[in-house]
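[Meeting: bench + compute handoff]

Bench side (C.D.) handed over the final construct sequence. Compute side (W.E.) agreed to return the predicted structure before the next meeting so the bench team could plan truncations. Sequence as handed over:
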Amino acid sequence: MIAFLKPLMTWPILGAVAALAVIVGAYQYGRASMDAEWQARTLQKSVEMLRERRDTNEAIRNLDDRELCTALGGVPDDATGQCL
């Protein structure tokens, strides 16, 4: 009798293992696609920040000493040439 039941008990176990394999595969696929999406968003944000920084650097590079002093909140002293 036990010999007859033994093959019947393996099918549910194999089914459970197959279902677990499908679930784990689907989870890994979803995680990989989310990682790719996150990486793309992060890269896009980095590019935007670099472009903003480039524009800021260019604007500051074009300022003379007096304009730079004023932009930084100082008061240019014409007599000494220093920023107060």
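W.E. noted at the follow-up: The longest helix spans residues 2-61. C.D. will use this when planning the next construct.
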